[in-house]
User: Fold this.
Amino acid sequence: MLNKVSNSDNESVAGNEDQINLKRRTVIQSAGLLAGAGMMGLATGGAWAAGSDKPEKEEVKVGFIPLTDCASVVMASVLGFDKKYGIKIIPSKESSWASVRDKLVNGELDAAHVLYGLLYGVQLGVSGTKKDMALLMTLNNNGQAITLSKKLADKGAVDGPGLAKLMQTDKREYTFAQTFPTGTHAMWLYYWLAANGINPMKDAKVITVPPPQMVANMRVGNMDGFCVGEPWNHRAIADGIGITAVTTQDIWKDHPEKVLGTTAEFVQKYPNTARALTAAVLEAGRWIDASLSNKTKMAETIADKSYVNTSVDVINQRILGRYQNGLGKTWDDPNYMKFFNDGAVNFPYLSDGMWFLTQHKRWGLLKADPDYLAVAKAVNRIDIYKDAAAMVKVNVPKDPMRTSKLMDGTVWDGKNPAAYAASFKIRA
Assistant:
């Protein structure tokens, strides 16, 4: 059974109400209802429906970037899962990850669909203001990609080895784009380049571009390649300007991607609201993954100009695992974007957060090794997630760590993060 992970600052909510809530949860846990991997939890609306457990803030403004993986936040609002838990989600379309960061920090947004590594960067004061953050759940696994320009593909750069060879023989400045300096796309791009013998810090120029602007920038020749979430990789293929060199699930199968993030201050002030928001989004993720028809309805919904603003066919192929690389190759990928996967997607594994810190250290964003585990325990609010999972009747893993093998054969299990960060031949 998971040990309860808590942040002393976040647990010390003012007033007796929180103490009552904590005691109540302790009683529930001791009754065995939250025990083990087969946890079924309480009936929806049971423990947190009324009285002191009522959400303190009923309208919750949640930011999102126009990407397929904003879907569970959007669908929680569209389908009314939020109302089921006593809140109203107000989705707020944002222009860039920097905007999401700033609005979370200043309180303009209550929470957001956000890059995993962005939250950790803010926590440690990398790439912006330092502020204590809270990660409530993982929103999705998989479903990002690295796109290379059609011009590079025509010269033989259709995959990692092909790109490395071209960069050796056709010497010039090569430019690649990611979406935020500490974010997931930067880390996937750097990891992939380095695994193919290309040092992203020395052998290339790396720029930051908001996701919806990637395709337009490649069209006018501002970059040779980019890493971004869907549907923008597929859009580059549909527009005839790029090819998919690798999917991120081929870099790390079932990797963590976007998360539901907020500030530690928000959770401290509105713990019941944070719990209700997590439950609503968790239930929406379960709904999306439940059937083909649900995925199709989701694609139709988020394609609207209010959300992703693209055609449905650009979204719905890869959400079903139907891939093409833009060069005639097609395949069915079993590791497509997942929003639930029986709860395996959503649990905020400590090792996942720690991995991003190891890469921040590897690439010089962090000058010294942090206390990897302590940071992960402070940011990843397993306590809030477990309560929400009980409300939605979702299984919770026994272990807050998991083991993963990445594309270069490196195994990550969270056991020795400093040694792992220092083990890579190519690093800053």
About this structure: The chain has 20 helices and 14 strands. The longest helix spans residues 271-290.
